[in-house]
């Protein structure tokens, strides 16, 4: 996934991993916190939807049954491994989606 002035663009080749999306969602949350009227909240939501199938493979990468997250996708297939770093990446992105007061309660 890449970001351009026109929004999100699909990368022509290569894989995508949850860590890339988590960093994008977190950055867009920070941008929205500083510039709340510039549309970063919508971009943040669009980026988060990557976990829910909004990417070129059109397959859900977050597994609601296990609470895990697949390790991303390469050209033509989803990597079905669910390693810890993918789950942590999903959780980082998910926390960035929560309202500030809810996210503060989740930090222990």
How big a fraction of the residues is strand?
5-15%
What count of helical segments does DSSP give?
4
Shape: globular
How many strands? 6
Classify the helix fraction into a percent range: 40-55%
Low-confidence segments:
none
The end-to-end distance, rounded to whole angstroms, is 31 Å
Structural class: alpha+beta
Q: Indicate the radius of gyration in whole angstroms.
A: 14 Å
Describe the structure.
- By secondary structure, the chain is α+β, with helices and mostly antiparallel strands.
- Helices cover 44% and strands 13% of the residues.
- Helix 1 packs antiparallel against helix 2 and helix 1 runs parallel beside helix 3.
- The protein is globular.
- It starts with a strand and ends with a helix.
- The relative contact order is 0.18.
- The model has no long low-confidence stretch (mean pLDDT 85).
Characterize this entry briefly:
By secondary structure, this protein is an alpha+beta fold. The protein contains four helices and six strands; from the N terminus they run E-E-H-H-E-E-E-E-H-H.
